Amino acid sequence: MGSTVSFLLLLFLSTINHISSESIIKLPSDNDISGGNRKVRADDNVVCDSWRLAAETNNAGAWNGVPARCVKFVAEYLTGERYRSDSEVIGKLASEFAKRVRLEGEGRDAWVFDIDETLLSNLPYYQDNGFGSVTFNETSFDDWVNVAEAPALAASLSLYKELQELGFKIFLLTGRSEHQRNATEANLLFAGYSNWERLILRGSSDQGKSATLYKSEKRAELVEEGYTIHGSSGDQWSDLWGYAVASRSFKLPNPMYYIP
Ligand SMILES: *[C@@H]1O[C@H](CO)[C@@H](O)[C@H](O)[C@H]1NC(C)=O
Ligand SMILES: *[C@@H]1O[C@H](CO)[C@@H](O)[C@H](O)[C@H]1NC(C)=O
């Protein structure tokens, strides 16, 4: 009798043990994937797409340069239809929000746009400069800015025009410096932008400040002037957070570089 109970208990315990080990999800190992002993790395596309998501959601924090194994992925993302599609979805969501905003009128309803990788795309420059995988060269980038032929990001151009029709005042808040004002204005007009309310660039007293601080200070000045910042669009978190933030912020994709 005693031994039968022990046997049943043992059987019961081994069943539990069996169930619990089976209830843990087993992920395929590298060996399972390759079907043999040959070690294969996880697909770069999968790993790099996860890295991109981590960068965009700021889980990656202040990242410095595209990981070497992801340069090809980033190049394909930016030059393929995915970047365009991501930007269009964000532009559409911004537009839907803007249409729901109850404007206060009196010309005090503001929307703040960043410029680089938001209104203008510097993809032609980055295409020749490693898609963010090489150290930023200020000299060659400034040369590119002076050419003033960066194309518009299509989704941002249509949002920009729609916001103007809805009655928003458009403020352009950029990390570019005051000495680049002419080239920046010329480039914006070249790309199809016009009738912005104000173009704000870094003056001498703004040099050396983080983008987050500089942009917060400038937004706070707008609020002090009586503007309500309903929306803000930028490719960097530093375009959007800090203080005097917009009611809604729209983060455009940029897997090439991170500005604090
Ligand atoms: C940066 O760009 C300038 C102008 O194109 C070039 O002369 C210089 O060699 C570059 N510097 C580096 C470190 O690549
Ligand atoms: C910018 O353009 C204005 C008028 O076109 C001109 O007077 C000024 O010298 C230019 N500034 C620079 C820094 O090129």
Automatic annotation (TrEMBL):
<comment type="function">
    <text>May function as somatic storage protein during early seedling development.</text>
</comment>
<dbReference type="Pfam" id="PF03767">
    <property type="entry name" value="Acid_phosphat_B"/>
</dbReference>
<dbReference type="InterPro" id="IPR005519">
    <property type="entry name" value="Acid_phosphat_B-like"/>
</dbReference>
<keyword id="KW-0758">Storage protein</keyword>
<feature type="signal peptide">
    <location>
        <begin position="1"/>
        <end position="21"/>
    </location>
</feature>
<keyword id="KW-0325">Glycoprotein</keyword>
<dbReference type="InterPro" id="IPR036412">
    <property type="entry name" value="HAD-like_sf"/>
</dbReference>
<protein>
    <recommendedName>
        <fullName>Acid phosphatase</fullName>
    </recommendedName>
</protein>
<dbReference type="InterPro" id="IPR014403">
    <property type="entry name" value="APS1/VSP"/>
</dbReference>
<dbReference type="InterPro" id="IPR010028">
    <property type="entry name" value="Acid_phosphatase_pln"/>
</dbReference>
<dbReference type="GO" id="GO:0003993">
    <property type="term" value="F:acid phosphatase activity"/>
</dbReference>
<comment type="similarity">
    <text>Belongs to the APS1/VSP family.</text>
</comment>
<dbReference type="InterPro" id="IPR023214">
    <property type="entry name" value="HAD_sf"/>
</dbReference>
<dbReference type="GO" id="GO:0045735">
    <property type="term" value="F:nutrient reservoir activity"/>
</dbReference>
<keyword id="KW-0732">Signal</keyword>
